[in-house]
């Protein structure tokens, strides 16, 4: 599956515990990554500063669903289910 245009759910819904440029302490779940542009695209895509956590994400129907709204819900649900 290819990333959906104008989505960005994977950059909003999950928490990220690794340091990111502009977010040295990572980001909380539900917090929009400051590296998302106005069209919900990663401004670090293809750049060496892009964290491996982000680069390793692959869009899959089970995670992304059929719409941006579904992706936000699914990823948020997975976030809660995997909290320790």
Describe the structure.
- The protein is mostly helical.
- It has one domain.
- The protein starts with 51 loop residues before the first helix and ends with a helix.
- Helices cover 26% and strands 0% of the residues.
- It is built from three helices and no strands.
Low-confidence runs: none
Structural class: mainly alpha
Number of DSSP-assigned strands: 0
What is the CA-atom radius of gyration, in angstroms? 12 Å
Query: Strand portion, in percent?
Result: under 5%
Largest sheet: none
Number of domains: 1
> Helicity, in percent?
25-40%
Termini separation (Å)? 29 Å
Q: How confident is the prediction overall: mean pLDDT?
A: 91
SSE string, helices as H and strands as E: HHH
Shape: globular
Total helical elements: 3
């Amino acid at each position: 599956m290819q990333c959906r245009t104008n989505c960005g759910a994977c950059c909003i819904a999950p928490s990220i515990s690794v340091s990111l440029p502009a977010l040295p302490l990572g980001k909380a779940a539900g917090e929009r990554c400051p590296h998302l542009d106005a069209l919900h695209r990663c401004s670090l895509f293809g750049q060496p500063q892009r964290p491996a956590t982000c680069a390793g994400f692959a869009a899959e129907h089970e995670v992304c669903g059929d719409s941006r709204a579904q992706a936000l819900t699914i990823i948020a649900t997975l976030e809660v289910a995997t909290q320790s």
